Structure formats: C-alpha cells, structure tokens
Amino acid sequence: MLTDLTRVITSNRPRFAYNVTSVEGFGALLDWGETHQKAMVLQCSERYLKDLGEDFFRRLVVPRLDESPVPFVLHLDHAGSLEAVLKGLQIGFSSVMFDGSTKPLNENIALSQQAAKLARMAEVSFEAEVGHVGGAEDGDEEEAALFTRVEDAKAFAEAVPLDFLAVSVGNAHGRYRRPPKIQLDRIADLAAAVSVPLVLHGGTGIPLSDLVEATRRGMAKINLGTELKLAWVAGVQSALAAGETELDRIRAGARQSVTRVIQSMEELLAP
Ligand code: 13P
C-alpha cells in the first residue's frame, strides 16, 4: 500500500530513501520490499519523472505500490515549483519535497508554506530544505553549498508546517570531487534546534561510518541516488564483459547490481 513518509521514517527509525532512475531500479526496490516484507521509501526527482515518463508513475508505479501488501512511500524529490508539487500530487505521490533552497530565506519560507498547504490538503507528508545542498540533484554540474545555520533552521521549522527538514552539512549531490567532510556537530545542533526529523541528501560517497554516526546525531532520512545509477551501469558493463548479448540478461545484470547496493544499505541501518 502507498503510505506517508511519517509512518515509515521517524527520528529513532532512520531509513534510506532511494531515487528511482530506471525500470530495473524500480523492480529491484519493489522486490526487495516485498521479499523482505519491509517498508521502503522510493523517490523521484522532476528530471527522472520526465525521463521515465509521468505515465510510468501514474499508471504503473502508483497502482503497483498501492496494491502491495507491504507499505511503500513514493516521494517527489526536489519539486522546484508549486506547479511541480501539484503535478506530483495529481500523479499520486504519497509524499512531496519542495525545494526553495536557492532562494533567499524569506522567499523560501513563503513558498514552502504554500507547498506545505498543498501537501496538507492532499494529506501527504512534506519535506523542505533550508541552507543549500551542493552538487546538482541529478547531474554533474557543480553547485555551491550553503551550510544550514541553526537559527535559520529554527526560524524555518517554526514558520513552515513541515514533517522533514533537509539540511546542508557538508553533503552534496552526485559524485564528490573530494572526500566529503560531514559536519557531525552541526547535525547534532540542528537536531536539537528543530523538532522534525532531518534529511541528509547526497548519500552517495559519504563514508558508511559517517552515515551511521549522522543517524545517531539526528539524521532520519538518507537520500541515495547516484549509487544506484552507478550500480546499474556497472551491472550492464559486467554483463557485456561476460559476453552477454541478450537484452533481458543484460538488464538482469543491472538489476542484480542495484539489488546488491540496496542489500548492503539496508543491512547498514538494520535495527
Ligand atoms: P546522491 O545522488 O548523491 O546519492 O543524492 C541523492 C539525493 O540526495 C536525491 O535528493
């Protein structure tokens, strides 16, 4: 069944949220959840919503997750406008993120308030971002980070009725050009200042020990996207290197490779 993010992730129950960027990745996530009877958080950005097609989500992903006996969250990642939030709600996403983090704080607050209202009307959970996570959500272009200030997070969380808050603490989307330095003390300070669970974007490439420590200090949702894309590519490459020429076997190689990543990540945060 499709469910709300707040029912799957809480401050003392941290989980990964996996970006759906391929049909094989979706299959691997669905299988994992159903085989292990474990609620999973799947998410999709505007770019991959366009790439895979709105109908892929509306007609296939949403009904398939909804009919499952296992709870799944389908979260819209980084909606950049109120129109995108509305579209996600119409498609049937069970949770949404509005990202106004490149705008000045007051503007981000005002737009996030409106996006939160749309999410509330649809009775789905709501995530927003304060400070700005660097990298590029879905690409390789470099974007400068703006670390989240504790006072900004506090003001934001007081003004916007939100369920999850994404923060910038040394994390970045995409491939890190140099080893990331996650500011664990800032995470603890932010968690003490706001009552909602925190979200760490850019999970790919962060040392696993830092990921675990980040969850101890207050990170509840960890986004993982690039790692699954890299696994997909590696799976195709090794199938080709092994001499496979049949498309179904090459795709199976990609799916198995994605499944291995899901397995190791789920083990990392297993209670
Ligand atoms: P990565 O692609 O760096 O893992 O980040 C995913 C993410 O944060 C999506 O919002």
Question: Would you kindly provide a brief summary of this structure?
Answer:
With 271 residues, the chain is an alpha/beta fold.
Secondary structure: elements and pairs:
Layout: H1 5-8, E1 15-19, H2 23-36, E2 40-45, H3 46-52, H4 54-67, E3 72-79, H5 82-91, E4 95-98, H6 105-121, E5 125-130, H7 150-159, E6 164-167, H8 184-193, E7 198-200, H9 208-217, E8 219-224, H10 226-241, H11 247-268
Parallel strand pairs: 1-2, 1-8, 2-3, 3-4, 4-5, 5-6, 6-7, 7-8
The site of 1,3-dihydroxyacetonephosphate has 15 residues, from β3, β8 and α10.
Structure description:
This protein has 271 residues and is of the alpha/beta class. Strand 5 (125-130), helix 7 (150-159) and strand 6 (164-167) form a beta-alpha-beta unit. 49% of the residues lie in helices and 15% in strands. Helix 8 (184-193) packs parallel to helix 9. The protein contains eleven helices and eight strands. It has one domain: TIM Barrel. It has helices at 5-8, 23-36, 46-52, 54-67, 82-91, 105-121, 150-159, 184-193, 208-217, 226-241, 247-268, and strands spanning 15-19, 40-45, 72-79, 95-98, 125-130, 164-167, 198-200, 219-224. Strands 1-2-3-4-5-6-7-8 form an eight-stranded parallel barrel, surrounded by nine helices. Residues 19, 77-78, 137, 173-174, 201-204, 223-227 line the site of 1,3-dihydroxyacetonephosphate (13P).
